């Protein structure tokens, strides 16, 4: 696993993550209490890094 704080998410990957996240929310599969944790896990899986930029998470979960 990569611990590099510089791991980034491309615009295309971000758009894909945000759309997948929004679909889960719209389908009622993800309660609001789990939004941050789930978004962080999605980014970790994509980047392979344990360090996740909180700004990316806020943008993913933004209503």
Structural notes for this entry:
With 63 residues, the protein is mainly alpha-helical. It has one domain. Helix 1 packs across helix 3 and helix 2 crosses helix 3. It starts with 10 loop residues before the first helix and ends with a helix. The mean pLDDT is 90.
Give the SSE layout.
Layout: H1 11-26, H2 35-47, H3 54-61
Q: What share of residues is helical? A: 55-70%
Described by strand count, sense and barrel closure, the largest sheet is: none
Number of helices: 3
Mean pLDDT equals 90
The low-confidence runs, each spanning 5 or more residues with pLDDT under 50, are: none
Summarize the structure.
This protein is an all-alpha fold and 63 residues long. It is built from 3 helices and no strands.
Kindly list the characteristics that best describe this protein.
single chain; 63 residues; mainly alpha; 0% strand
